[in-house]
């Protein structure tokens, strides 16, 4: 049922700038405490080597912590 302020044919999937869930704080992730994914580990390892910050990589990181470190290294590297 459409809200009173929305046009009856309003489709949020067609919004030119739909809200993004990609900007959710890693601290708020439901699965943030789970071990980082293989893709995160690989990317973090690569970034830490490129940034010459080997200590940024650790195999026992959570998804949330890996995401924060990836973001920090990307910023440092200008990506």
Describe this structure in words.
- With 79 residues, this protein is mainly α.
- The protein has a domain at 33-79.
- It has helices at 38-50, 63-77.
- α1 (38-50) runs parallel beside α2.
- The radius of gyration is 18 Å and the shape is elongated.
- The termini are far apart.
Structural class: mainly alpha
Order of helices and strands: HH
Characterize the largest beta sheet: strand count, sense, and whether it forms a barrel. Answer: none
> Considering DSSP H and I runs of 4 or more, what fraction of the residues is helical?
25-40%
Q: Determine the N-to-C terminus distance.
A: 42 Å
- Percent range for β-strand residues: under 5%
Our count of helices gives 2
Overall body shape: elongated
List keywords for this structure.
about 80 residues; single chain; mainly alpha
Question: What's the short version?
Answer:
It is built from two helices and no strands. It has helices at residues 38-50, 63-77.
What's the topology here?
Blueprint: H1 38-50, H2 63-77
Helix pairs in contact: 1-2
